[in-house]
Amino acid sequence: YHNFKRTYEIGGKQTLMEVMKEYEKYESSNEVDHLNGNMNDWKEILSSKEIYGNAKKMLMVQQMHNKFAQTSSESICTSTRYWFDAPVGDLLELVRKPESEMHRVITFHIRTFADENIGIAFNDDLTLNEELAEKRRDKGKAPEQRIDRIKKVAPEFPKMIQKMVDVCTILFERTGKKTHVAVDSQAVRDYLRKHRTVMQVISTNIVKNEEHYYTEPAYSLNDIADWYLLSLGQTIVGFPTSSSYSSSAHCRGGSVIHYAGTESEFTETVYKVLESEFKEDIFTSETISTTAQSIVDIEIDTNADPNNDDNGDENDVKMKLEDIPFPSPTNSEFRFHETSSGIRTCLPGVPAEYSDVLTAETVTGSSISPDECLWLNEVKGTGIAASKLPSDCVPDKTVYSSYANAYHWEMLIFNLQNIKDRECFMNRLMIECMDDKAMELCKGSGYIKHCVPYPKAMRASDYERPEGQTESKTDYNALTWIKEKVAFSLMHADISVFTFDSDVLFFDVPDLAEIQATKPDGIIFFQLASIEDEEVEKAGEFTKEYHSHQDFNAGQLFWKPSEDMKRVLLKAFRAGNKSGKIDVLDQFYFSGTLRDEDDGAVWQKAHHLSSKFDSGCFHHRPYDEEKKLKRTTFHACCYTTLSQKLHGLNEAQEYFLEHKREREQQL
């Protein structure tokens, strides 16, 4: 009955009772001798070839060899009879997929005796159904203490299951893998199927699976697969009762095993496992006892309709995370973590689903390195501080941001000359310094108040994008991705930001409130790169449908906090990583992802900035003088070297100074 290998070989189709029935007809005729391996030394009998009795047939009940027994003081493994070899054949096929999708941090075994006809049955909401239990009960089958044990814990059992699901959700968020759960109750199995973070083995090859449990709880192939996967956990937690099934799995895998008979025991056990695995990356600074108590105090809604698929499925990952102290809150510090299986996270920003975004530094510069994950905290903290300073020309919870290394510093300072005396602007301006020299110059400027150091020095760049090459002599591409990373960080503090490249000249402080008011649904406002038709531009028909894919320029962007935009940025980082090209800029991947996300629905919330945000790529057309006078900024794009950019910026500044009085009249 308990021989797992034998159960596998017969595919779970033959129960102990069925085996015994084959020999019942021989018992009265004395044709069968029953050799009990627990009482008789049958090995010695067989090895000496002595005949045991006069029977022609023999039924041997064998003391199972335990190949996983440990020569230690832990008697649970030295005395256990259960054993099972490595998966082969059908079993190997059955466990291959779930094994690849599960993590090894923890596995669970839910032992309830519910389908063994001893007087335990559950409703769909996991409360006890005593009427059904009594109807099914075989009174001669099991002792009363098993029933009493389950009835005692029954009031807490639904909460224990829900808490387990919450833990599975947390682990899925951090590892990208599901948690394996072995269950002996069909009602509990059905309940857990709603949650995609829970791994169960449900074999389609088991005929009439439910009837199998209700008629004879012998081990099926499905059970053996569950047992094998259960044994893979570094820690096995069994509840609400102990079981030799999980004990033997513990012996096979050499794992740690815990049993929890109450909700508080379950909470404490799981807390310690997660604390050991994730340490400070997953917990707050509260002590274990305080946090454990806070978990106990959580009120879990057990009144949800278990038949409603909306209770789980696609939204499972986010389910009740705000009620559990384990996950990083959305406004917490970014923390880099890598699991033993290589899954990386930078929570609360980059979940395990986007582990590939957190690679080492790539040639495209689109990845977020471990150092950059921590740097996001510096950006966010600076942004929060800047957003709190008084300003009558920048909206609340809004900042400006640019970046430069020493090579670009002269140009950046040149471009701030017209507004550096506007305290309302400088209070809200933060500069990411891409090398030590830039940081020194920033602090020594006397008017830049928020200087953010970068974790490494970015190489000088003359805007090289060598087509077809796999290695660049500069960090131009990596520099272009800084604004996306800054915006991504600040969104996690609910801060809006206007990012601009260091080659953007300001004539005045942009009216961001006016921009937002024109398109209240906007989550991003972008600079147009070029104008294909002068008449269209003059008529003010800046339609997204009119302009080509290349008309999106990331040199000037006004970002609003948005879950949609966080998702777009993660996918854009991933797209850049996958391409491996150094001759394609950030704006190509970002704008492409923005246009494609959610079948274009997110793109409908992206709007272009007006012609006040001028571009060097407009130089091919004759200027409308009035528009030229009213422009707020000038981006020296389409100039390919630093000297060319400075030349174009000087021309724009000279025009501004020459016509300053006329401009003021026009405005």
Question: Could you walk me through the main structural features you see in this protein, from its secondary elements to its overall organization?
Answer:
This protein is of the alpha/beta class. Helix content is about 40%, strand content about 15%. It contains 27 helices and 19 strands. Strands 12-11-10-13-16-15-17 form a seven-stranded mixed beta sheet. Helix 25 links the parallel strand 18 and strand 19 (about 635). Helix 15 crosses helix 20. The radius of gyration is 34 Å and the shape is elongated.
Summarize the structure.
This protein is 39% helix and 13% strand. By secondary structure, the chain is an alpha/beta fold.
Q: Biggest sheet: strands side by side, in what order?
A: 12-11-10-13-16-15-17
Principal-axis shape equals elongated
Helix content: 25-40%
| Share of β-strand residues | 5-15%
In DSSP terms (H or I, runs of 4 or more residues), the helix count works out at 27
Q: Work out the radius of gyration.
A: 34 Å
* Span between termini: 91 Å
Give a short account of the largest sheet.
Answer: 7 strands, mixed
Label the structural class. Answer: alpha/beta
